[in-house]
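YM 10:42: [acyl-carrier-protein] S-malonyltransferase sequence, as discussed on the call
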Amino acid sequence: MLAVLAPGQGSQKPGFLTPWLTLPGAEARLRWWSALSGVDLVHLGTTADEAEIKDTAKTQPLLVAAALLTAEQLPMYDATVVAGHSVGELAAAALAGVLTPEAAVTLAGVRGREMAAACALEPTGMSAVLGGDQDEVLRAIEAAGLYAANRNGAGQIVAAGAVAGLEKLSANPPARARVITLKVAGAFHTPYMAPAEESLGKVAAGITPGTPGKILLSNRDGTAVDHGPTMLLRLVRQVTVPVRWDQCMQTLADLGVTAVIELAPAGTLAGLAKRTLKGIEIVQVNTPDDLTAARDTIARHGTAPTHEPHPEFSVVVSGTAGTFTPLPDLTEGSPVSTGQLIGAIQTRQGPVDVTAHDGGVLTEWLANLDDPVAPGQPLARIGGQL
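YM 10:58: structure's back
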């Protein structure tokens, strides 16, 4: 099974898109996306210096465009799983069919500008905590008044919050851990980004998302999201909630992924996968010269196309954490209409209704009465159409 990964902020390098502009149509594609994102992607990917491409407002659309541009050179039809780290999740959503490429780069432009504006409101930042006992690291981060913004696995947790808190953590690091200050504009994936989330949500509300055509993993908890509107909501909420890349990698392991391809600018996610997912094949796509190896990997690990008929299903997933209560008189084989209530999630704040996104026949319950469920967890499978 093959997974394709889209990197996040911090992976960019000066001039990394230069060799890609030799491909037919690549420059025109970037100029079109530049008009949508509000930044000059050709300049940023070729002649801009390191300082300019560290600007959050410019980096985010640049990374999404780069991932999509390189993916267009690959037979993505045969990729089974897609995931993206932080802003890379917009690219992954486009590769899965939830967003169009145009919507993805537009949202990336808005996301970058609004997060940069939120960073300017007060002095905040981020620090990587490497090594140490995970529980001790998390307690130290909380004690310093900070947030665990990224949990990347392989002994890497990123703390974020007020500068004073970061200085406190650096002065008193957890046992056997190193604290490294990151050169970022502010505390991403924390409540400090609330103004950016609000602005992004207003733009995202005008998008009609599609249904994922691949297994699309969510940064929120590593679960596969198969409902377009749910994924779009998660993409907006992601601005203020932690990135659980460690859980995404655990899902890759659970799925039995045998190969990973990281799109340009590759390196960071490939390194994490190498340390966490033992024994799998890893390919980094940084220049057109890497495409031959990537295509070969897809041919050997991807899903072969088939013209045989197969059943069409939709899966209802949980929108929150709690315990599941299915509707008592709804049994497998029962007809279900679009928007019909099929159960509820019992939470501390009260019950949250669960409804069917599509009509059909309740083919299988995937969760039972009083089962604990997590956000994004599958609850029921509905087959066919009414």
